[in-house]
Amino acid sequence: MAQNLQKMRLLYTLLFLISFTATGQSYNEQLLAYREKYKQSLMQGVHPLSAADTGYLRFFEPDSEYRVQATFELITEGMPGLLSMKHGGYMPPARIYGKVFFKTKRAAITLYVVRLFSEHEDYTGAHMRLFIPFNDRTNYHETFGGGRYLDISALDIKDNFITLDFNKCYNPRTAYEKGLPYLMPPYFNNLRIEIKAGEKIFGHNPGF
Predict the structure, then answer these.
(1) Radius of gyration of the chain (CA)
(2) pLDDT in tens, 38-83
(3) Phi and psi of 4, rounded to 5°?
(4) With 64 labelled, which of 13, 25, 28, 120 sits at a CA distance of 20 to 30 A?
């Protein structure tokens, strides 16, 4: 009997190792790889960072409690006039697309999801851009004062549920070059708690 139990334990251990190997990386390793790709993306585009500037990027330590399953609710009415740009600039066509409900760190949270449109976008929604602009209690002293963004994919919404990973939230570009226009988080996405996850305030001459 003891020998059979030992064999079963060995089998479960092997299955666990096989499963772990199949995933390739731990969550922390995947997140660190994601952040490296993010740094590379900031060195591209209209206002690229230099390789030296990326050394001033800072992040909270990975925290799996900020990777949450949320309930998604579609909003069919556009809720116009609730989004605005800071520092001027062209306001892209945008509307509130839906809202998400979830709990993290024992707090119940509701956030609204914004959909951005572009002239080249497939309006059937196959490639729609969705993101959550938000403020929280870390603004100005730990994170960028103008708020942060979290991108999501409509393809990840399954049966009105979606996984949100705030370890992947990031700054608008004005955080690195003062005065660049950016879409401000709407007032109803101002959280009264701290979200200690994702990108921190830029470590060199941050903008507001």
Answers:
(1) 20
(2) 999 999 988 899 999 999 999 999 999 999 999 999 998 766 556 8
(3) -65, -40
(4) 13
Classify residue 40 by its DSSP letter: H
Residue type, 142: E
> Whole-model pTM?
0.81
Burial grade of 173 (CB within 10 A; 0-12, 13-18, 19 or more): middle
* Closest residue by Cα to residue 46 from 146, 181, 139: 181
Which ranges of the chain have pLDDT less than 70? Answer: 1-24, 78-82, 89, 118-127, 205-208
Q: 115 has which bridge partners?
A: 95, 130
- Residue 136 in tokens: 């929280």
Rounded to 5°, angle at Cα 136 from 134 and 44: 50
